[in-house]
Amino acid sequence: MMGHSHALSGVVGWMAIVPFVQGREFLGIQFDIGPGEIVAGSLVCAGAALIPDLDSKSSTISQTYGAVTRWLSLVFAWMFGGHRNGTHSLLFAVLLGVVTQVLALWSDLAVQVFVFLLVGIAFNGLGFGSEKNRVASEVITAMVVGGITLALYTSGVDYTWIGLAVAFGCLLHFIGDMATEMGVPLLWPFWKYRFGQNIGFTTDGKVERLIVTPALTVAIVLLTFYLFPWPELLPEA
C-alpha cells in the first residue's frame, strides 16, 4: 500500500483496539487510556506503520527527514535484504517494539524525541504540507508537530505502552501489504515465503484509491465520534 494508506491504517488500528485493551494488562503494561492516549497512540501507530518501508529510498518515510532518512534507508535496505524483506517480518516488528520499550524505560526525554519524530512521519504520510513551497511547509509542520508533542507531554500522557504501539503499527503495515500483490515475508529470515503474494490488489490502483483509502478515512471519523465524550466537551446550556 501507499504511505498515506499505511498511515491511515495506523490511526484506525489504534482507535479500533482502544475499547478492547482499556483497563486491561498486557505483557505487564496496564492500559489506562484517556483522550490524550487515544490521540498520542493514533499518531504513534500512524508513524510506526510507515517504518517498515524505510528499506525503500523512494518511500514516504525515507523522504521525511531529508538526508538522514535517506541514509537510514540505505542502511536498512543493506541490513534487511532490500525492499519488502526483513523489515516486513514479525522479527522486525518485535525487535523494533523491544528497542522502543527499552528507550522508554531509559529516558523520558528520549521518548518525547521519538514521539516527535513519529508524529512528523505520520503527518508526512497523511499528506500534510505543500510540495510547492517545501521549506516553508517543513518549518510549519515541524512547529505544529512540536506543539502537538508538547501538548501531549503537558497533558500527562503515559507512554508506557509505546513499544507495543510501535510493534502494532508495524503489524498493521504488514496486513496492508499482504492485501497487495507483492505479499510479505512474515517469517523472514527463517522462511522467505511471501504471504498474500499474487492475491491482493495493485498498490496505488483503483481498489486502494477508490475503496481502501476512503474506507479508512470514514472509519477514523466514526471511531472519533465513538471514542470521545463529545457531550462532556460541549458547554452546558
TrEMBL record:
The chain crosses the membrane at residues 93-123, 135-153, 159-188, 209-228. Keywords: Hydrolase, Membrane, Transmembrane, Transmembrane helix. The keyword Hydrolase applies. GO terms for molecular function: hydrolase activity. It holds the Pfam family YdjM. This is Membrane-bound metal-dependent hydrolase YbcI (DUF457 family).
